[in-house]
Design goal:
280 residues; Rossmann fold
Length: 280
């Protein structure tokens, strides 16, 4: 079983640190998106990289449509990785839906994690008037799923540009598009349904692990209102607004991403005290 998990999630370990840092991709991506961040952290931490089943070099034979119809199925895989590697007080860095997957894992087994770092998180992508703005109407998300079914390559081109939102750097859009296109279209659509129609707002108040929320500028996928909502609802959280534009700061602005994470970890480890709330 141990070897099965290594193969299933294509686990890779690198770095020289004694404390572990897990890097969790967002929707449609694999562990390779973390390459610049992992490179900058590998002398300080033991870096744990993995792929979701259906992405990257994971074992496609392990894909179970029922299990992965909800984010809890992906969260269980994270817990399997943590148990296999006997991780305790690891730093979990998640991008986009990976943030919510890590949060769900922490609710089941908080002892695995010392901190949650959320890059562009969203607990609910739908607008739920009058109290919640997620950024999308239901018709928009249904249209996105329909486009994935009708013209997956066309969807990948449009969605990559929307997500990246760095028009002056077309190579980043091309890199993200390539990752989308390397994923099985059926599995990608099922993951999209699990991610974009999830509603984890009620889970936020139950989180016990200190959390850093990194909010990007001009992020169409996770607008500033969403970051503010998470910060308000999640106890012991810190919110930092980034200069980075778009939804993938670990790819477009890795230096700023690493700097903010590094500063947060230094600030919160000085005396082991609780995280100070901050809106800056």
């Amino acid at each position: 079983m141990n070897q099965d998990i290594f193969i299933r999630n294509n686990i890779k370990i690198l770095g020289n640190g004694t404390k572990s840092m897990i890097l969790a991709p967002g929707f449609g991506c694999d562990q390779s998106v973390w390459k610049p961040v992992a490179k900058m952290f590998k002398n300080e931490y033991r870096i744990i990289l993995f792929d979701y089943v259906g992405s990257g070099n994971s074992d496609l034979r392990a894909y179970d449509a029922k299990k992965y119809s909800t984010l809890e199925g992906y969260a269980q895989d994270v817990l399997d990785v943590c148990s296999l590697l006997e991780l305790k007080d690891a730093i979990f860095v998640g991008h986009s839906v990976g943030s919510m997957i890590g949060m769900l894992a922490s609710l089941k087994n908080p002892e695995h994690f010392s901190d949650l770092i959320m890059l562009g998180p969203s607990p609910c992508y739908l607008n739920v008037p009058p109290d919640y703005f997620g950024g999308f109407e239901k018709e928009q998300l249904l249209g996105l799923i329909e486009m994935m079914e009708r013209n997956y390559l066309g969807w990948a081109t449009v969605f990559a540009a929307t997500v990246m939102n760095n028009p002056d750097r077309p190579e980043l859009k091309a890199e993200l598009e390539e990752r989308f296109c390397s994923t099985d279209p059926i599995i990608a659509r099922q993951f999209a349904e699990a991610a974009f129609f999830a509603d984890n707002r009620k889970d936020l108040s139950n989180v016990t692990v200190p959390t850093l929320i990194l909010q990007c500028s001009e992020d169409v996928i996770a607008p500033v209102q969403v970051g503010a909502y998470i910060h308000q609802q999640l106890p012991g959280s810190m919110l930092k607004h980034m200069k980075a534009t778009g939804h993938c700061p670990h790819m477009s602005h890795p230096e700023e991403t690493v700097s903010l994470i590094r500063n947060y970890l230094k600030e919160t480890s000085k005396d082991g005290s609780e995280v100070t709330l901050c809106n800056g």
